[in-house]
Amino acid sequence: MAEGILTRVHSLRTHLDETFTAHSNEILSFLSRVESHGKGILQPHQLLAEFEAIPEASRKKLTNGLFREILKSTCTAIVLPPWITLAVRPRPGVWEYIHVNVSALVVEELRVPEYLHFKEELVDGSAIKETHYTVIFPSFGEQYLPSMLFESIKNEDENMKFD
Fold it and tell me: N or C: which end of the chain has fewer CB within 10 A?
């Protein structure tokens, strides 16, 4: 496989594991800078600015490699120290979600529900192990909504009087 080209044969997690093994100090330098922003969501331009701010010797080692391509394909980074979750779009219509523990340099691949749960955790500040759903019957239709985000709608619906 050519260096610097993302294919569907291997997951991003596999690529990152290989890159972390080869360049752990350089990547740790970058991830530590990203983590130092604290809890929040970083956009691509912020990630690239942090990449440009790492020492030149470290940046040169990562510039022509797969890590730079992954970084350029990252659309959002959610930071909840010590975790950083990257939403990566390697090509149109393809999304992959990578969960990195900065302290341990552990990489996990997330599915969409896990990514959304992590993003919801950022907003709510709570770690919920299970997602609970509320069923609302506004007329004859059903809608399934995450109860945490729509608690006020649920309460309003429960108190609604029907004639």
Answer: C
Weakly modelled stretches of the chain, pLDDT under 50: 1-2, 6-9, 128-136, 140-142
Cα separation, 43 vs 41, whole angstroms:
7
How many CB atoms are closer than 10 A to CB 62? 20
Q: Which of 158, 161, 160, 118 is nearest to 134 (CA)?
A: 158
SS3 119: helix
CA distances from 44 to 41, 75, 88 (A): 10, 6, 10
CA distance 154 to 160: 10
pTM of the entire predicted model: 0.68
